[in-house]
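Bug #2210: token dump truncated for Spore coat composition protein, manganese catalase family?
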Amino acid sequence: MFMNRERKALLMQIMEIDFSLLETSLYLATHPDDEHALRLHNTLAKKSKELIKVYECNFGPLTNKGMSKFPWQYINSPWPWDEKF
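Reproduced locally. Full output below:
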């Protein structure tokens, strides 16, 4: 039960950061000279990579592009739309 709660909390954190990444990339598409926004975007990108690495090391692949132990684990993980937050 603890691992399930921990997994869900980490997944929520990843989704929040990835949402912010999408927003900053859309903003930067129309404001490419905003250095502050670019620094924020790069910070979020780094944090997203770190959190995804932690998630995948503890709970298996988050996407079909993630690393997997043998046998292929991606298919065994709960799908994001199956989660009840």
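Output looks complete on our side. The chain has a mean pLDDT of 84. Marking as cannot-reproduce; reopen if the truncation happens again.
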